[in-house]
């Protein structure tokens, strides 16, 4: 009987990260299906790890930069000595991508050295395919690793950062050189098609990020009182937490018991804390910092709806998790979000950047009957479990790798 086990090297930048649990779920789903996965990251994540699953992933991951400069230079010299012409082509590719990149040629020469080391690890692990997440430096290393004789590769583009600088990231080259490229939404596929020649459009596949359905048993009933909202994400401009505070200022004038829990952390925390104080919202806002998945689920169960006021996104995992937990979603009408959230059926969608529209949607939810909210929550749960089961999506990815 033919062995269908895949040997995959996951090439990542910073791993694990609290906000990248979808990568961990994908890897573990592939392993549960019998495939072998080697985790290879350039560096450890910079955010503190509070989830035991992330700590386990960190222990299972090999870190390229920890090997040291001499190990990388040694791998590069060995690769050159074994196949100088092939090395020259890879060097030319790195140089070309570096010339158009914001990070420059020197960084891409470092990527080339990382790729040489990655090729050595892939050979030792007998990996026949490499997969990267995000179209940034991890995809560059995977591409250069292949150019140096390493395994064929694919990479998943999430957005929105990749869509901000497609030429600087050489997305066209990365797609052209790949076996296939993954977009997480149809919207994402349309954006990648802008930077890939029509001859490569068939390479762009849609594989959704997935939720582990075993972590979302039958949801608890929506809470009484409130209304209560939760927002989950890094404290950065694109997530729109400041807009959520403006919306809360409007909402509490008619809903004095309204409460918002902000889960996450990041560079904008001091500004967010100052804004909460200046707006007089201290009794209406709770900041938790980063918490583990069990705490996230508990906070979702204590809320009526997830609030996602983002200015730019791909399709956030937290929307899928909220819907799987039987909670409503109030989000901005951008990118791939409308592919999952259906206005009037599973939640509300508002124009990005419009605090008044966001406040109106929150007020509308607060005034909707509990029976209607429960029906909408159940519809959202059914929709996400049908479209975003991690086992199904991991099997899709494996099929593309094997094909």
List keywords for this structure.
single chain, 403 residues, alpha/beta, Rossmann fold, 2 domains, seven-stranded parallel β-sheet, six-stranded parallel β-sheet, 16 helices, 13 strands, 16% strand
Summarize the structure in words:
The chain folds into two domains: 7-210 and 389-402, Glycogen Phosphorylase B (Rossmann fold); 213-387, Rossmann fold, CATH 3.40.50.2000. Strand 11 (305-308), helix 13 and strand 12 (328-332) form a beta-alpha-beta unit. The chain has helices at 21-32, 52-60, 69-82, 84-100, 104-125, 137-147, 161-164, 171-177, 186-195, 241-251, 269-278, 293-301, 317-324, 355-367, 370-387, 390-402, and strands at residues 7-14, 36-43, 61-63, 129-133, 152-157, 180-183, 204-206, 228-232, 259-263, 285-289, 305-308, 328-332, 347-350. Helices cover 47% and strands 16% of the residues. The strands form two sheets. A seven-stranded parallel β-sheet has the order 3-2-1-4-5-6-7, sandwiched between helices. The model has no long low-confidence stretch (mean pLDDT 96). Helix 3 packs across helix 4. The protein is an alpha/beta fold. One of its GO terms (molecular function) is glycosyltransferase activity. Residues 219-382 form the Glycosyl transferase family domain. InterPro entries: Glyco_trans_1, Glycosyltransferase_grp1. This is Glycosyltransferase involved in cell wall biosynthesis. It comes from Sulfitobacter undariae.
